[in-house]
């Protein structure tokens, strides 16, 4: 099977690496070509456009920044739909909108192409460790066909419903992530103000009832002053915007998500948009040391 991968950022590059190690032929495209150079050195094949990737592949993955980016790479004149043949399966790993996922599913079906929405959770660590949680919406038979490939880079992989359901599941995921990140920032701020040993605090609290991924994964990074992006601040703002928009359709209020979006917007306004989401701690202290 020939695989195409469009979008080789922090997570995408790690995923392509796993596919290459599993002996798949992988065609790659990224708007910034230099980001694919290490992958080409490992055996990936550079293609000049998304259309070229689609023409050369049986299964195509996309993992880009925003819903607008997703729509563009699928629908542009040299995009995925222009190059994909009938019976090809296309899988969008981007966190996007349920509405766009449903539209792309229908657009693909009219061309004989199966489009699945399959956002992934786990960030850079999950991508590097091939332990991502992948939530898949769309045709169940298409999902069954590609499951062995998803298992190369994912650990918890489930089909969750019709087109758009994967994105709804990821929205729920991001609401929780944002909430626990706020809690992590406040917990560290309180502990530091109380002159506690912060590493000891993380060890104790991180093994009790308050244990969660954000505290145990991002807490140590914050103490080290490591704000490198595994997941960008500006992507969190995008995801929370999607969550709040979808909630409005349900006439549902999400005050914690709204607060988190407001606080991440403050970080963006302070020039931290390209830092990792753990930079939320900077709203309390620049350094925990």
Characterization of the model:
The chain has helices at 10-21, 37-42, 50-55, 67-75, 80-83, 98-110, 123-128, 140-153, 165-193, 198-205, 213-223, 233-249, 255-269, and strands at residues 2-6, 25-29, 45-46, 59-62, 89-92, 114-117, 120-121, 132-137, 154-161. The longest helix has 29 residues, at 165-193. Helix content is 52%, strand content 14%. The protein contains 13 helices and nine strands. The strands form two sheets. Strands 3-2-1-4-5-6 form a six-stranded parallel beta sheet. A three-stranded mixed beta sheet has the order 7-8-9. It has two domains: 2-162, Rossmann fold, CATH 3.40.50; 168-283, Orthogonal Bundle (N-(1-d-carboxylethyl)-l-norvaline Dehydrogenase, domain 2). The N and C termini lie far apart (50 Å). The mean pLDDT is 96. The chain is an alpha/beta fold and 289 residues long. Helix 9 (165-193) crosses helix 12, helix 9 (165-193) crosses helix 13 (255-269) and helix 12 runs antiparallel to helix 13.
**Could you name the ranges where pLDDT drops below 50 across 5 or more consecutive residues?**
none
- The rounded distance between the terminal residues' Cα atoms is 50 Å
Mean pLDDT: 96
**Order of neighbouring strands in the sheet with most strands:** 3-2-1-4-5-6
Give the oligomeric state.
single chain
- Percent of sequence in beta strands: 5-15%
């Amino acid at each position: 099977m020939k695989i195409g991968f469009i979008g080789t950022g922090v997570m995408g590059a790690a995923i392509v690496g796993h596919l290459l190690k599993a002996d798949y032929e992988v065609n790659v495209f990224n708007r910034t070509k230099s980001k694919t150079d290490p992958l080409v050195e490992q055996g990936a094949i550079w293609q000049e456009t998304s259309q070229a990737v689609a023409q050369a592949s049986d299964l195509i993955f996309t993992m880009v920044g925003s819903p607008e980016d997703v729509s563009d790479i699928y629908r542009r004149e040299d995009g995925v739909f222009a190059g994909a043949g009938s019976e090809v399966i296309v899988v969008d790993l981007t966190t996007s909108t349920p509405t766009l996922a449903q539209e792309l599913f229908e657009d693909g079906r009219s061309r004989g192409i199966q489009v699945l929405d399959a956002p992934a959770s786990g960030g850079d660590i999950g991508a590097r460790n091939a332990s991502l949680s992948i939530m898949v919406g769309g045709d169940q038979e298409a999902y069954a066909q590609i499951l062995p490939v998803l298992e190369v880079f994912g650990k918890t992989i489930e089909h969750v419903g019709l087109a758009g359901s994967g994105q709804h599941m990821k929205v729920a995921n991001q609401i929780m992530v944002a909430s626990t990140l706020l809690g992590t920032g406040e917990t560290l701020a309180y502990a530091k103000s109380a002159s506690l040993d912060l590493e000891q605090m993380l060890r104790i609290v991180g093994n009790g009832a308050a244990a969660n991924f954000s505290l145990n994964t991002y807490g140590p990074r914050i103490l080290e002053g490591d704000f490198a992006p595994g997941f960008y601040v500006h992507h969190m703002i995008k995801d929370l915007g999607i969550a709040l928009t979808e909630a409005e359709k349900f006439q549902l209020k999400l005050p914690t998500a709204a607060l988190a979006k407001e606080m991440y917007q403050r970080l963006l306004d302070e020039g931290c948009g390209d830092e990792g989401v753990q930079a939320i701690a900077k709203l309390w202290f620049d350094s925990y040391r």
